[in-house]
Amino acid sequence: MITLKGENIYLRALEPEDLEFIHTIENDESVWEISNTITPYSKFLIKQYLKQSHKDIFEVKQLRLVISSYDDVALGMIDLFDFDFKNSRAGVGILVKEPNDRSKGLGSEALKLLIDYSFTHLGLHQLYCHVSEENDISIKLFTKQGFQKIGLKKDWILINGSFKNEFIFQLINN
């Protein structure tokens, strides 16, 4: 049995009812830096995305899950992206929506569940992520789950007119 249930949260598939939640996140300029977004998304486009979200990760090369509390409150999202079946790897992205819900272990629990799922059920060999050099919370989160810093991309991201460095982290399933 596939379980994406943790002690405090669980990961679930996207539902049509998530439209407002996703729309709010995708249009929150304060998180565009971590999502590499520069334009807002319309509800129409998000509806189209939700209609396609049932497709298999092997077809669309992405899996987006909602981080949910046990009283069914959507707390954030966690993604596998750039799924590469041939090389057995995928990128990971995570966002806990509300700042006051961050640094409480929810992201760590969600990431652990996704790592276990990726290695056990998808058979991936490795996961990777890109984190701004200044994003101490994400650096701590990924390091705590065993990701190792393997490189620095200098002047990689342009944020508010200034170039920022970005680390690449990697977790290999041994």
UniProtKB/TrEMBL annotation:
Transmembrane segments: none annotated. GO terms for molecular function: acyltransferase activity, transferring groups other than amino-acyl groups. This is GNAT family protein. Residues 9-172 form the N-acetyltransferase domain. Pfam families: Acetyltransf_3 (PF13302).
